[in-house]
Every structure is written in structure tokens, then in C-alpha cells.
Amino acid sequence: MTLSFQLVKEQKLKLQFPSDLFINGNYQKSISEKFFDNISPIDGKKINQISFAQQADIDKAVSSAKEVFQKGYWSNLPPGQRKKILLKFAELLERDRLELSLLDTIDMGKTINDTYNADLPTSIDNIEWYAEIIDKLFDDISPSSKDYMGLVTKEPIGVVAAIVPWNYPLWMAIWKIAPALITGNSVILKPAEQSPMSAIKIGSLLSEAGVPDGVFSVLPGDGPITGKSLCLHKDVDCVAFTGSGEVGKLVLQYSGQSNMKRVQLECGGKSPNIIFADCHDLDAAAEASAYAIFGNQGEVCSAGSRLIVQKEIEDDFIDKVAEKSKNMQPANPFDPNSFAGAIVNKEQLDKINNYVNIGREEGADIKVGGNIAMQETGGCYFEPTIFKNVKNNMKIAQEEIFGPVLTALSFSSFEEAISMANDTEYGLAAGVWTKDINKAIKASREIRAGTVYINNYEEGVDSTIPLGGYKQSGIGRDNGYQALDNYLQTKSTWIKVS
Q1: pTM recorded for the entire structure
Q2: Domains defined along the chain, listed by start
Q3: What phi and psi, each to the nearest 5 degrees, are found at residue 23?
Q4: Is 266 a catalytic site residue?
Q5: Residue 292's closest CA among 451, 120, 123, 465?
Q6: Which of 130, 186, 322, 439 is disulfide-compatible with 182, CB 3.0–4.6 A?
Q7: Mean pLDDT throughout 51-76?
Q8: Contact at 8 Å (CB) between 187 and 180?
């Protein structure tokens, strides 16, 4: 389907806005009858009221998840049967693709072009990839003596709480749901309170696909109440979290305070994007560098937010990036031709604006942008912003802004570039641009980051590539077969042969 502004407007008029908890195969209000307002950052208007999951709701969902897991309705299904159900789920996502895309656009302000042409297709691909791999994995037999046989098998871990962020509402949820479900676990999804609607919607789609009641629940709510309660619950066996480092550290604490549950964390970054003077195509590098920070309004954990440019090309290259940013301005998110949309809410908009003011005070120079935009809409928009003459010890170069703000630094030598790239508490991603393959490989080996992009930045990444971080960017990996380990226990069975 080719998107048009008219088609989007027509579908938008037909939308129903999901608002309830999804527990044991049914939509229901919170037992406490608590709600919270769901506000769209596009125009600042209330969309609906969302049921707010409290402790009683969490206990109900976890009890159902644990019971169905122990009875084996899902966990003991042959992998081939789980595969068929997940593939059916992928078909249903395709069927409702525009509806789900609009829900995410309305909830968090990103463009319909991004949700429809990027988020939904990659979500569907992720589900299909995990569904197809599950019946092609084998357990092991150890190389023991003839008197013994050692079996090494993998089993589902149990009840998984998936706590996901607002920047890619459905996509990030699928990154947790697909590997956790396909390995036989029960899953409780807590979407971000800023973007709950697509998560609520997929509860019914998973049931329609054939997932047994109780295996999958959706509990909208906030972090301090709903998220914390899930993390502390002693019948939750694993928490898979994507979000801020501050909250990630709390998740680790809650694991220790409860039942030492498995924890998988993806906690953001301040990723370096290194441009060497021998880069073979500076125009392509400039466009990719602009997209790496201004795409999705800069609300990307792995955004290339630190541009590290060799001094002899510094001014010319920053000029090129600034020129590219002119075509990356925020606009109406419902227009399929818009590049960028709204910032998720006023709190995040104020945070971005505050960091821009800090950058000015620290002595960095604004090359372009630096202002709140489209205030007449009542929504939350910010211009693509580039700081130059940045020092690596400045706050704007060290702290995650999570917005369309690029800090440009310069270097003279390879060693200085690598030192600058690693001089951060984060280690999620990095980019390296050079035509020298030896330099590229050496840089990839020396940069302390979970993913290093060579002569691209996040181009063509798919479900086969594990993503995660070093240092305070997290623990464990999403995507690839490596993500399956988050949701599996390893069991050794030692048999004496007589």
C-alpha cells in the first residue's frame, strides 16, 4: 500500500483508541479503577484515558502467566507449533499495519512515514525471523567418556516482564516479545505510559493468532508503580528492559531485592561517529551523519550524537551536515512526506531545550537550529541543532540528550579519535568512515561499543544482528540468536550408562 495524506486522514477517522489492560485473554479495567490521561504531542490534546495497572492487576497477570506456564499450554508446545502461531501473528500485524502505525504516530509524535515504512515492517521481520529459527536450533551432547552421557538442553525461563520505551513503541516491544514467546515463556508487556496504544492492541492479535490465554498480558502504567512492582514481583523470572541508564540501575537493584531474576538491559548511549579525512564519499557520510542524529527526532538510543571529525575537513564537513539538516525539519507527522515529527512530550521538549541552553553556557557555538519549533500547533517540536567547537568534557558531549542535537568535535590523530570515542560512560554504538580497511578494522577493535558501523550508520541492520552495549549501555543483547539466551535456562543432565 502506498501512503497518501488522504488515505492517512481517512484511516485516522476510523480509528478506535485501545485503553484497557489485557489479562488472561481479555480486555479489562484496572481493579482499582485508576486511569491516566494519554496526551498526543502532535497537538497537546488528550487522546483517551488509559487503565493504570496497580499491584492487584499485576498479581492477577503474573498469576495467570505462571499458571499457564506450569501447565505447559504454551511452554510445552513443540517449537513447530509455536512457529505457526507467531507467523500468523506476523500476518495479522501486516493486516492491521496502517492502524498500528497511526496509533504509534498519534501516541508519541513520530511520522507516519517512519511508523508505516520502517517500524511495522521491521517488527514483522523480527517475528518471522524468530519463528523460523526456533525449530532449527539443537541441544548438545557433551564429549564425555563411554560410561556417561551429558545432555545440555535449553528450557524457557518462565514469566518474562518486558518493559519497553516510547521512542519505538511497537518495534521495541516486538524485540522482547518475539524471542521470549518463541522460546516458550509467558510474557507481560509494560509499555511506556507515553505510548501504550499499539501494545494494548496487539494483545487481541496474539490471541487471534492462537496464543493461549494467560501467556501474554499488557499492563499499561508508569515506572514507579507498575514497572517497579513487576521488577520486584517474586514470580517474575526475567525482566527485559530498554530505557534510561538511571532506571536500568533500579531494575538491577529490584532484581537483588526480590528473587535474583534474570535482567537484560539496553540503556542508551552517547555514540561517536568518527569521520576520517580519507573518507571516500564525504557527501554520503554527511547525509548519514545527519540522519543518524535527526532521524526519529533524535529520540534513538544509538543515535550518532557525537560527530568526531578530523581537523583538516572539520569546517567543510560540518557545513555539509548543516546543509543536509535543512531537509530534516519537523513537520506534520501525518504527512507521509514529513521527515521528522514531534518530541514525545513537553517534559522531553523542555529537557532538550535545557541542554541547548547548557551548551551555549558551556561555550559551544550553535551552527544551526537551537529553537523550539511549530509552537502554534500546541505540540512539541524542536529544530535540528548542531553545536560546533565542542569539548568532550562538556555536558552536551557526555550526557544523553535524546533529541535532535548534534555535538561536533575534532581530532588530529587516530589515537586521539579512539580516545575521544571511548571517553564516555556509554558504549552502545559507533560509526567509522574511512577508505582504509586496516584503519577501519583497527578502529572497530579498539572502540568499546556493542556495534560499530563502518562507512554507514545503522543502514540495513536486520534481525540477524545482535544489538546491545558495553559499559553503562546495558547487559545482554536484543536481536540475533544471541537474544534467545535472555529467555532460556541451560540445564545439564548427567547420565550414567551401565
Answers
A1: 0.96
A2: 5-267 (3.40.605.10), 272-462 (3.40.309.10)
A3: -135, 135
A4: yes
A5: 451
A6: 130
A7: 98
A8: yes
